[in-house]
Amino acid sequence: GSVDLFLDERISQLTGLANTHSIEQLKNEDYLNKVFGIIQTRSKSFLDLGVIDQEGNHLAYVGPYYNLLKKVNYHDEKWFHEVMATGVYVSDVFLGFRKLPHFIIAVMVREKNNIWILRATIDSDIIDNIVRPAWIGKKGDAFLINRENVLQTTPRFGGKVMEPPKAPDFAAATGTAVEEIDFHGETSLYATSIIKLKKWVLVIREAPTEELTPLLQARFLAALIGLGGVVLIIIGAYFTTRAMMKELQRMDRKKAASDEVAMQSSKMAALGKMAAGIAHEINNPLAVINEKAGWMKDLLGMADVAHS
User: Residue 80: what pLDDT?
Assistant: First the structure.
């Protein structure tokens, strides 16, 4: 993660510098000093810069160890052969001629028939500062080891750089893993991850019995927020369902009232139709009777006239 990104940026910076300048330019220490000053204004990661020929001789050097390193020959040093073989090399932490823990990044340049190396020393405190935020809780620890199980950063509890850590050996780790291990009578949670650019191993230790760490607190808070969201959804669903049920009941009552009015109207219409039919049926014989009665009245009138 952050360590890989840091190393990748430093390699890119050094490679870009080596490929945009000739050896004639950089072996001029005044010019190299100006270049180093420009780099320092952007980042304080590099402690020094050196230009080294294919025989291991320092052609130019800028940094705090000028008197010690300017005349040094690196031909027999491990890192020199590594960079000559691979082109780009990041070392483990070592003492070197300055007798202080440090590590270097070196790139090889082929310029026509000439081969030379641009080398920078990296401030190891920067790597410590990248790893330190992983010290979680009161008993948490985090550190880097190499493939020989040698510390590359200073742990929080015990151990020094370039010594084995006071922890299980994770030098053979192949990826990210988390496990609970009893080491010297103390049970701890250990997480490991690989620093791909250097194949270092990041080891993080935490006490499983420790009270909630910031990470666990964050998880608890996330779970609490999630639970609160579920509760709000349930409450919202309850009141929404209740409102819908009330609305459905109101609509049912309204529909029932409408149906009752419609049925009453239908009954009235049917009753009126039936009454009209009955009246018609009664009116027909009454009309006949009325006609017959008039006819008889006419006959009786005619009879009276005849007798007179």
Answer: 96
Which element (helix H / strand E) includes 108? Answer: strand 103-111
**275 backbone dihedrals φ, ψ, rounded to 5°:** -65, -40
Written as one letter, the residue type at 85 is A
Helix then strand count (H, E) for the chain reads 7, 9
Burial group, residue 139, by CB count within 10 angstroms (0-12, 13-18, 19+): middle
- Reading the block at residue 158, the tokens are 């015990």
* Residue 260: Cβ-neighbour burial (10 angstroms; 0-12, 13-18, 19+): exposed
Q: Is the predicted pLDDT of residue 291 greater than 90, yes or no?
A: no
Q: What is the pLDDT of residue 137?
A: 79
pLDDT digits (tens, 9 = 90+) for 158-191: 789 999 999 999 999 988 899 999 998 888 999 9
206: Cβ–Cβ under 8 A, 6 or more apart, which residues?
A: 136, 137, 139, 140, 141, 188, 189, 191, 213
Give the pTM.
Answer: 0.64
